[in-house]
Amino acid sequence: MSEKVTLSYDGKSVELPVIVGSEGERGIDIARLRDQTGLITYDDGYRNTGSCTSDITFIDGEKGILRYRGYPIEELAEKSTFVEVAWLLIYGNLPDRQELKAFSDMFTEFQVLHEDMKHHFEGFPPNAHPMAILSSMINASGCFTRELTAPNDPTKFRRHSARLISQVRTIAAFAYRKSRGLPSVYPKPEYKYTENFLHMMFSMPYDDIALEPEAVAALDQIFLLHADHEQNCSTSTVRMVASSRANIFASAAAGVCALWGPLHGGANQAVLDMLTQIRSEGDDGSKFLEHVKSKEGGKRLMGFGHAVYRNYDPRAKIIKASCDKLLARLKKSDPLLDIALKLEETALKDSYFLERKLYPNVDFYSGIIMRALGIPTEMFTVMFAIGRMPGWIANFKEVMDDPKSRIYRPRQVYTGPTIRNYVPLEKRSAH
Ligand code: ACO
Fold first, then answer.
1. Mind listing the pLDDT tens digit for each residue in 195-228?
2. Residue 1 has pLDDT above 70, yes or no
3. CA–CA separation, 335 vs 267, rounded Å?
4. Lowest mean pLDDT among 92-106, 148-162, 391-405
5. Which of 119, 198, 379, 396 has a C-alpha 20 to 30 A away from that of 30?
6. What Cα–Cα distance (Å) separates residue 397 from each residue in 103, 186, 234, 243, 390?
7. DSSP of 374-431
8. Which DSSP letter does residue 204 get?
9. What is the pLDDT of residues 152-202, one digit of tens each?
10. Is 60 a catalytic site residue?
């Protein structure tokens, strides 16, 4: 028998159905609450609101569990690749050989930008943030997609989504080259996804860089670990935009904008800035932590805490292990890593962080890996966006494929002035 919740209000009782998810989470379906009682629910920032049902990603924040389509993130990080995971997220199952080949072939087909698109890069000032360039160029890429005749044509979805995943890395690499005044480097069909990205970032038109397999694997894993994270700020934004039936390029560009903020994807850059500042002040992290705990100046320990995890972010564990492995393989040491380790060790023993259940999140160590790969700090959030693209696309598809999907439209509790009459300018007193 299906579960119900009874709500009493104003002398009346209403029964509300309970939706049960496949992992046992329960949500009260309040869709008809206003019709029945005149009430809406209030949940500032949607922290306790399920905005949709979704088959894509499962998170248990208390236990520190993350699974894509049922597969534990630890297994995928060890055995799979970013491209395979992209397919898994979008289409629901691990691809067979043929599907994987067709998917990879489409990335090769779309990897070069339309030549006219290159002129758009010229319009940005040299110090433009690459996230601004990325969101603008993803949207522009839609204009160069001749097949994009209707806002959404489901028959073209496969090609559009592959184009986006492929071109986001070309755009990202071109944005970086532009910011450094370097010539653009075109992708090579013989390279795989992540190899090609590193090639476009660091080769010269006359000299290809030697790609270290360990470096390629580390970055591929970073993309994979970022590939989806259920209804976070940027993914909800993508779903919101998609719900108006905006096209996939516009929806993904909106996701990039939402990701940019330092409380979300921008945190990886903020972590590196924080570590660099701590080092420049000759601190080992102890003084900084005292500042954070005193809350003076509103400083936070960036890379710690998470809106959902009240435990170690499982991605942080994987990234930390990869970071140790990569630095050892590349025979590199990084003083910022020493500071990060000290901060983590101290914070995890400190009652301030323990009581608030603040643990390292995915961004705490990913920056150290990217630094070791030579990726500049201002590109860190762009790396996150490349990784997150399949998750945004999978969520976009879920919205489009749902025959009951309607435009997203939250309500509000209005707290502004009640009705008042217009006052002509000459009769208004100065405020
Ligand atoms: N450092 C110090 N104190 C913190 C931190 C932090 N990183 N995060 C939360 N707190 C404190 C808050 O000050 C608050 O303290 P109080 O109870 O005394 O008022 C308490 O912990 C709860 O904080 P909230 O802001 O309510 O937590 P919320 O869940 O809203 O925030 C967030 C989550 C934004 C991630 C936060 O932990 C934060 O700012 N972390 C640093 C930024 C960061 O690393 N972001 C990346 C998140 S992962 C991602 O987006 C991929």
1. 999 999 999 999 999 999 999 999 999 999 999 9
2. no
3. 20
4. 148-162
5. 396
6. 16, 30, 15, 10, 10
7. T--GGGHHHHHHHHHHHHHHHHHHHHHH-TT-----------S--------GGGPPP-
8. B
9. 666 789 999 999 999 999 999 999 998 888 999 999 999 999 999 999 999
10. no
Q: Report the pLDDT averaged over residues 341-360.
A: 94
Count of beta carbons in the 10 Å neighbourhood of residue 189: 11
| pLDDT over 60 (residue 150) | no
d(CA 272, CA 380): 9
Q: Is 64 left (phi over 0), alpha (psi -120 to 50) or beta?
A: left
List 306, 313, 402, 431, catalytic entry: 306
DSSP summary character for residue 360: B
Look over the chain and give the mean of its residue pLDDT values, rounded to a whole number: 93
**Nearest CA among 263, 238, 224 for reference residue 89:** 224
* Residue 392 predicted with pLDDT over 60: yes
Sign of the torsion formed by the C-alpha atoms of 280, 278, 222 and 258 = negative
Tell me how long the chain is: 431
Residue with the smallest CA separation from ligand 1 atom 2 is 300
Model pTM? 0.92
Q: Six-digit token pair at 32?
A: 């008809």
The alpha carbon of 349 is separated from its chain's Cα centroid by a whole number of angstroms, namely 29
Ligand 1 — pocket residues by CB below 6 A?
Answer: 263-264, 267, 292, 300-307, 356, 358, 361-363
Q: Catalytic annotation on 306?
A: yes
Handedness of CA 87, 153, 385, 363 (dihedral sign): negative
Q: Which atom of ligand 1 is nearest to the CA of 356?
A: 21
Residues 378, 330 contacting (CB under 8 angstroms): no
